[in-house]
């Protein structure tokens, strides 16, 4: 990834924070994006202490003006973006019949519209500059199967999968690759309590490998899609789930 400028959205915590560290460790100049720049400064400092190159930019992926401003700032301060990791996402855990229109819109605007806006802006700038690059959209196995009380999330992730394929088809002629990474259940501070509970333990038993994933399990697939290691690979959905999708519901 040396010499590449990589934008990671939703980089203030969770997988986005992890992805930023992985890309910086591989030599990329990483731009961490989130709505509040101050939340990113700790991550920037951590990457710097490890010898990586990182900077922060404020971006609301659901707002076109914010996306355009963020890319303009990156161009001025770091250079043109070569790699986009479309990671920003959110969810609302409620039964379908209890979800409000505003809650639905909040999930879909971030998870789907945000992916489209960021990808479109990055691709347009690459085309205008006659440069090549790649986009990695972070989807989920819940784009292919369902779980209760997350209807907006599952719908948005299924749409991201199809958007990835459609964009790959249209952008291939410009030398822009578009792929997606579909994680299964990955261990984090946010889900540890659930997975220690009886329902969480029961879910783990339905994963063929009988374990949760760790963020590090996503490192190699991420670098495969984000680097020049797979130049003939576009429109692919790379699933990393311990076999969950091939198991019975």
Question: Can you describe what's shown?
Answer:
- The protein is α/β, with parallel strands linked by helices and 249 residues long.
- The protein has a single domain (5-238), classed as 3-Layer(aba) Sandwich (Rossmann fold).
- The chain is 42% helix and 16% strand.
- The protein is built from eight helices and seven strands.
- It has helices spanning 14-25, 41-49, 64-77, 101-128, 151-171, 192-196, 198-205, 219-226; strands at 5-9, 29-34, 53-58, 83-86, 133-138, 176-183, 237-240.
- Strands 3-2-1-4-5-6-7 form a seven-stranded parallel sheet, with helices on both faces.
- Helix 5 (151-171) links the parallel strand 5 (133-138) and strand 6 (176-183).
- Helix 3 packs parallel to helix 4 (101-128) and helix 4 runs parallel beside helix 5 (151-171).
- It is globular, with a radius of gyration of 18 Å.
- The mean pLDDT is 95.
Envelope shape: globular
Order of helices and strands: EHEHEHEHEHEHHHE
**Overall pLDDT level:** 95
Question: Span from first to last CA?
Answer: 38 Å
Helix content: 40-55%
Which structural class fits the helix and strand makeup?
A: alpha/beta
The second-level CATH architecture is: 3-Layer(aba) Sandwich
- Could you give the order of strands across the largest sheet? 3-2-1-4-5-6-7
Largest sheet: 7 strands, parallel
* Poorly predicted sequence stretches spanning 5 or more consecutive residues: none
> Any idea of the CATH class?
Alpha Beta
**Rg from C-alpha positions?**
18 Å
Instruction: Give the number of domains.
Output: 1
CATH T-level fold name? Rossmann fold
Number of helices: 8
Number of strands: 7
Strand content: 15-25%
Spell out the CATH superfamily: NAD(P)-binding Rossmann-like Domain
